[in-house]
Design a protein that fits this description.
elongated
Length: 133
């Protein structure tokens, strides 16, 4: 390593910023990664690599599908109680909203969670047709 200059810095980020400046100045190829990236540079870098990463992830998921499944299965077995507790909390959080009784425009009384299925019924469809004529 060659000492280029003395640089008084207050923290590590300032030192990295100065190092990056000299790497760009001398077109250094020793390091694989730049020590300092501004938020704009970082955003530009990730935007340029988005398609490449998407393709890499797609290939990785197909090649290592079994390995990924096995890791997920092991993680689930290890933390099964956490997963079950999370599902239970979500159920309890939504039970009041889902069991709320509403009255449809066609005159039917139903639970809120059944509204989508109700809208597909003949009774509701006939009401919509007669109402629109």
């Amino acid at each position: 390593m060659i000492k280029i200059c003395d640089f008084p810095c207050n923290n590590r980020r300032e030192a990295e910023q100065e190092e990056d400046k000299y790497m760009l100045l001398f077109k250094s190829t020793l390091h694989m990664r730049r020590p300092f990236l501004t938020p704009e540079t970082k955003k530009e870098y990730f935007d340029n690599r988005k398609d490449i990463k998407k393709e890499y992830d797609k290939i990785r998921r197909t090649e290592k599908a079994e390995e990924i499944k096995e890791k997920k299965r092991i993680a689930y077995q290890r933390d099964k109680h956490k997963y079950k507790e999370t599902v239970k909390q979500a159920y309890l959080r939504n039970i009041e909203k889902n069991t709320q009784m509403i009255t449809c425009n066609c005159g039917s009384t139903l639970q809120l969670r059944r509204k989508n299925n109700h809208e597909k019924t003949k009774k509701h469809q006939n009401f919509i047709k007669s109402f629109s004529i």
